[in-house]
Amino acid sequence: MKSMFPQAVVFPLALFSASLFAEPPTLQASNETQRDHFVSALLKKMTLDEKIGQLRLISVGPDTPKSTIKQMIEKGQIGAIFNTVTRPDIRIMQDQVMQLSRLKIPLFFAYDVVHGQRTIFPIPLGLAASWDTQAVTTVGRISALEAAQDGLNMTWAPMVDVSHEPRWGRSSEGFGEDTYLTSMMGQTMVKAMQGNDPADRNSVMTSVKHFALYGAVEGGREYNSVDMSPQQMFQHYLPPYQTALQAGSGGVMVSLNSINGVPATANRWLLTDLLRHQWHFKGITVSDHGAIKELINHGVASDPADAVRIAIKAGIDMSMSDQYYSQYLPGLVKSGAVTAAEVDNAARHVLNVKYDMGLFRDAYSHLGPVGSDPKDTNAEDRLHRAQAREVAAQSLVLLKNWHHILPLKKQGTLALIGPLADSQRDIMGSWSAAGVAKQSVTLLQGMREAVAGKATLLYAKGSNITDNAKVQAFLNLYEPAVEVDKRSPQQLRDEAISVAKKADVVVMAVGESQGMAHEASSRSDIRLPKAQRDLIDAIKATGKPIVLVLMNGRALDITQQDQQAEGILETWFSGTEGGHAISDVLFGDANPSGKLPVTFPRSVGQLPLYYNHLPTGRPYDFTHPNKYTSHYFDIDNSPLYPFGFGLSYTEFTLSPISLSSSMLTAKGQMVASVTVTNSGKLAGGTIVQLYLQDPVASISRPVKELKAFEKVQLQPGESKRVQFTLSKNDLSFWNQQMKWVVEPGQFVVMIGTDSVHTEVKSFTYQ
Ligand code: BGC
To answer: What residue range is the signal peptide (predicted)?
Structure first.
């Protein structure tokens, strides 16, 4: 197994220094030399104002209308544009650069293409639930192709913020709680989106975000601070960023949080010592929306000029959205507070990525010739529906299937109830880029098509997403995002009850609206909203069997509903083809294989709850309960559903683990293998997961850590040998002195199809 962790390198604790890249950056050395010459020559021709202009990243909008943008382009005051997403619009601006500006330095165009551009795939949390790097490669390639064909050069993705916090609304945008899974997903996304070369016609450059540790905001409260030990940081939170950069990501977006008291945007250790000097990153760093200005609120800058001085010295190249760099850098350079070399350095990084995007060869590389723009940007034939349906089906996680209630038969009378059953908007999830809601398939549409001519499907909305007027107002703050049915809760429920009573089985589409799992959508209560809980209670009272279809962007507390429903299918926000994909799984046309990328807690009070926690001195043992042990007296320590969990319509059995040797040495490798058998009656796939534990070390090590996984697809009765190769790096960790070490002794290897039920074997490292 190829490890994402670096070779042993000494870490002076005070500096938090990190290792060198294990692999060279993707750009070939000769290209890099050519690029450096080109950029150096260009910088010599540029005035200070033109260099500062390159550092400005701007969004066209009411504050900066197109006419203002035109004047700014003419004067060389803009480096890049984000949020403009059609070829005709982009072409106008690039034309202005080429026709009006002195040096004709092309703009680059960026957008949040996080899980699709026109075709919307499952949210990243759902993609992670597929544990399928091939599926994620498909998503990355298609997203890049659609984005590039819209004229874009860069995406603000992937987001690789590891998070143990379902209260945080942006859990939806990341790949879950695990370092290794997040690293693999992030790396796959970068490679897929950038392709062989980010300059290619159908590729875009990625910007890994949010650097760093944004997923660890205290209490899951958005934009909050982060305080973390260096061991935790380097072992669990930083590897996904480093892995994405090793995969060649040309950009880094800097996070909005502070890290041990220093905002990331002001953090020279993070952006210069670590990122540039130790990780040798040569691309651009971009501040997040308004982050430079926010240094004043953070209490580290006294005024706007001070904020600019701190940000550029820390290592922020491009300033997103605010005008501060343009306004204050000229004066700061004049007074000597910022050096010309510091501005040159930032401008060089911007020009470097423009070079790597191929823009100096052809400013229109992603636009094509005049007249080639699509006639209808949202034309149906620009979508990739078949791939979206397939990937979405792979992202679904079957949590409960009591007495094999699923798959459903396409016969008799079925009821579909719930506020998310027919919402085209919500199913796309947060950051659905240029996706168009009316092109997405709801569950109601999907089920109707599936049963047409075979069974009767009844439908009732049953409740609003929420009856809480304050939450409704929050969700509809900027646009009417959540439609509020004017009927009373009782009227809505009554209709649903009468529909349920006529049905053999009731499918309930419940969860969160798109805006509940987004940026700035932290929740203190991660249960289903009360209106939906009441609806489920009412349907339960009819005595009809219930299959819950959850649509949501975070781990939820569904403890109560878990006791009420016979079947539970976690579908996240599954995208343009979600309704078809969910329907495929509900009716058994696809067999679910997804596994949870996050732990589902029993209650918000258990948070943070994650599988790879440290042992305590007083572990709780439920078979011998002891008061003075680490637990809550009012709830179990265990999760409702553990990390890595997910059922299938078939059964898989694992043989005991066999090891190629009982001992691993520093230069050697060891193969751990199991035979997986499909012992059920249907073809299906599962994810074989390998965890390691270092039970005795100089510092406490996690009770288990994911180190490898493989998806296997088997026919009924078929078996497959799954082999994982382990080496020293897989056993290494950051010790108390921040050295990357492996300590000799016993290790435990666990292999299973979730993180709890595993085969176990020990070996020695010497
Ligand atoms: C978000 C970023 C996003 C940017 C541009 C910010 O509010 O934090 O993730 O890329 O906006 O849309």
So the answer is: 1-22
